[in-house]
């Protein structure tokens, strides 16, 4: 019986330790250095994201979850962009550029959209293969949260508000 209690106690200590590590931000990593090629042909780098809280969303026009979440991504951008929040939607390499342009124009996406024709950006951001994959980057350029699949938007909004309040 003593071994079970010791093992349970050790597991609890490890769990709490990892939780504190992540909660206190010690587990944050810098957003990878990347160059994003926007639909208008201009370029933006990861360094350009600093000073703002940024949602980086890897998506595809063929991804039903991506298409379904886009109105909430737009609403989130519209709610916070005047307060120092930005959004960058990165289309996956297999997504035909003409489809991405058509989607961005017909849906009137108000934020920057990038094409990742070579897959280099997705690879740099952890070899992203599943869409949607979303990263929240704080003002210092650190990834503070990532989601695979649609985020819990009320929770996401709380996180954005917290990050916007940081100096």
Automatic annotation (TrEMBL):
- Look up the domain of life of the source: Bacteria
Which SUPFAM superfamilies does the annotation name?
Thioredoxin-like
Residues passing through the membrane, by range: 6-26
Entry keyword set = Membrane, Transmembrane, Transmembrane helix
One Gene Ontology molecular-function label: oxidoreductase activity
Query: What Pfam family is a match for this entry?
Result: Redoxin
Domain named Thioredoxin: residues: 25-165
Protein name as catalogued? Redoxin domain protein
